[in-house]
């Protein structure tokens, strides 16, 4: 009789845990706190550089981050973007800017400056993106840093993914905007601190 009671208690505990798991999974992703979603790792992401655009002497492209894992993950603030020059060992690292001529976060430019959003990427389908930008114009006698390869990583990680991306940066200066939801690299703040990508 004693062993039967222990067995029944174990079965109830397991069933209760499984039921609780189903309840958690049933909550829509939009209602899950962004802080509860783990940060994405590079292994969860497919990273690509999209095209080339320019306006007012500023050129650049959109970096796209797709969640290829089955679990939701999140991205916030800025990626690490390093342009690899044509000369061996020559590199420049992108500075952080909320927005630029081509787009970014807080594209409307109205104060106060908001913090970058936490972008939650749904499993298998979620996207985040940002712009890498640079100026092709500089003062008299300026030089261009030319690159055709970018190394892209995440803050706090020593790993990088190489992607094709053209850079012709005057005086070797470029910048990158924060992660935003979707594939355009541009979004505006809302009253909610997190966004779904």
Structural class by SSE content: mainly beta
Largest sheet: 6 strands, mixed
- Taken in chain order, the helices and strands follow as HEEEEEEEEEEEEEEE
Proportion of helical residues: 10-25%
Provide the gyration radius in Å.
Answer: 22 Å
How many separate domains make up the residues?
A: 1
Instruction: Note the overall shape.
Output: globular
Outline of the structure:
The protein is mostly beta strands. It has 1 helix and 15 strands, in the order αβββββββββββββββ. It has one domain (38-196).
Descriptive account of the structure:
The structure is a single chain. The protein is mostly beta strands. The chain has one domain (38-196). The chain has one helix and 15 strands, in the order αβββββββββββββββ. The chain has one helix spanning 2-26; strands at residues 45-55, 58-67, 73-76, 79-85, 91-93, 95-96, 99-100, 103-104, 118-121, 127-135, 144-154, 161-170, 174-176, 180-181, 194-196. The strands form four sheets. Strands 1, 2, 6, 10, 13 and 14 form a six-stranded mixed sheet that branches. The N and C termini lie far apart (55 Å). The model is unreliable at 1-31 (pLDDT under 50).
Topology:
Elements: H1 2-26, E1 45-55, E2 58-67, E3 73-76, E4 79-85, E5 91-93, E6 95-96, E7 99-100, E8 103-104, E9 118-121, E10 127-135, E11 144-154, E12 161-170, E13 174-176, E14 180-181, E15 194-196
Parallel strand pairs: 6-13, 9-15
Antiparallel strand pairs: 1-2, 2-10, 3-9, 4-5, 4-11, 7-8, 10-13, 10-14, 11-12
What keywords describe this structure?
197 residues, mainly beta, six-stranded mixed sheet, 1 helix, globular, disordered N terminus
